[in-house]
Amino acid sequence: MSKNLIIKDNALISASYHLDLIEQRLILLAIAQSRRVGEELTATTKLKISVSDYIDTYSLQGRSVYENIKKACKTLFERQFTYTEQQEKGVRVATSRWVSEIAYNDKTTAIDITFAPSVVPLITMLERHFTSYNLEQVAGLNSKYAIRLYEIVIAWKSNGKTNQIGLEQLRDRLGVFDDEYQRMELFKRKVLDKSVAEINEKTEINLSYKQHKNGRKIVGFTFTVKQKSKPKKLKTQEQERDPKTPDIFDNLTDKEREIIAQKNAYADQIGATEQHRQNLIKKALEQHRQAEQSEQERKQREKAERLAQEQQDKERLELAKRQFEQILASDGLINAYIANNIVAKYLSGLQKIRFEQGDFRGVFEMERYKFERLHELQRLNLKFLD
């Protein structure tokens, strides 16, 4: 798994909040950093982000980067988000800050971020429904709306299509203020179309949308998400870990994480209870792991059989080499070989000339290649050596 993996609970993906571009980038980099530190993330963990890491991640230039980050630190502390949680009795609506503390150091040009207590489980408790993607996919996006739209639709990538998202709900999730882009033409041109174009240009997905109307009024949108074909990559000495290796943080493989996301999306579609959701996930994971185990055992059997056959072939060729030398050392065995394996009328070239001249040793020496190739060796009659 990439060290820059971003994982968010779907409650956070669906939350309503307003973050500008730099604030979003700091949050995403801090989430990625939380998975690199190698220890459990808590509400007291200070995550250090260097300005150089920020610049490298987002491919930025200019002397004003640090000053802009310092300004974002001051505003980020005041930012809030609102999210919902389905409970046995009704829906819990919660509002939280993003960070409980944020600090900067002019001498080291580094930022320390401490996530608020409510945020920590939303980026670490992965036994529930979550969305994941690599930070590299959004690092090139220069619009705060494009980043949010990418997060919203990527949760539906395995389905290929989102449910209908109401207009007001979409505006809330994208962080569009009530007094911004009130005309639909402006909202589509400045927010939606611009974000879709940037996502299609700079990420691994192709995105399109369909608008839904009530009479002449647009009331919602459905997004279609398609994975771009991946170019073949040259292997390098530094490879990312095997996608079948469980991650040290959640003990899930990439495929298992994808299965959970698919089942959560299905559970959302059918309005499943939490218990039904967990049963769907448990059954799907058990079936996948059983199939993986069977496949692994099959590959191990095939490997053992292949290695045994290779050893057998090696030993047979080594024996054939000794048999060739044994025959070559005896005129009697040469004559026996020719009697059992040579048909004069099928000879040609130099071997035919040698045979006609009675140079049977020379004829046999030209048979050496047959003792070096298994398919030729199988045709020889060497019973006279018994």
UniProtKB/TrEMBL annotation:
GO terms (BP aspect): DNA replication initiation
Signal peptide: none
Keywords: Plasmid
UniProt-annotated stretches for the region Disordered: 229-249, 286-310
InterPro entries the record matches: Initiator_Rep_WH1 (IPR000525), WH-like_DNA-bd_sf (IPR036388), WH_DNA-bd_sf (IPR036390)
One Gene Ontology term of the molecular function aspect: DNA-directed DNA polymerase activity
Domain of life, per lineage: Bacteria
Protein name: RepB family plasmid replication initiator protein
Species, as recorded: Moraxella nonliquefaciens
